[in-house]
Amino acid sequence: MEAQQNDDLRDDHDGNPAPPDELHSTNTSVPRHQLATMAHETVYFSRPRTYGKGSRGCRVCTHKAGLIRKYGLNICRQCFREKSTDIGFVKHR
Predict the structure, then answer these.
(1) Where in this protein does the record put region Disordered (predicted)?
(2) pLDDT digits (tens, 9 = 90+) for 36-90
(3) Distance from the Cα of residue 34 to its chain's centroid
């Protein structure tokens, strides 16, 4: 009886129980931690981003918030403050 309980637990060498059988895979090329998240990853970014804020990003750092689109700059405001003198913008008071 005790041997059967030990077989059911299937502890590894550290004493931690083995993961549930549904996470076991015969394909060894996929890491075990990715098996549970694959279904979510296939749905997560499946909708096409062709318009709106999600489709545009800063051309320097790919940040999506605070984007300056005027004159076709497409640069976030943080990068604009760093690069404005290189681009040729001068601050007037």
Answers:
(1) 1-35
(2) 556 666 777 778 889 999 999 999 999 999 999 999 999 999 999 999 999 999 9
(3) 13
Q: Give start-end residues of each CATH 4.10.830.10 domain in the chain.
A: 53-87
Task: Write out the two tokens for 75.
Answer: 């640069």
| pTM, entire model | 0.52
Q: What is the CATH code for 53-87?
A: 4.10.830.10
Report pLDDT digits (tens) over 8-38. 555 555 666 655 555 555 556 766 666 555 6
Comparing CA positions, the residue from 73, 52, 75, 51 lying closest to residue 63 is 75
Dist. CA 23–CA 25, nearest whole Å: 6
C-alpha dihedral, 8 to 9 to 12 to 13, nearest 10°: -110
Tally of CB atoms within 10 A around 86: 7
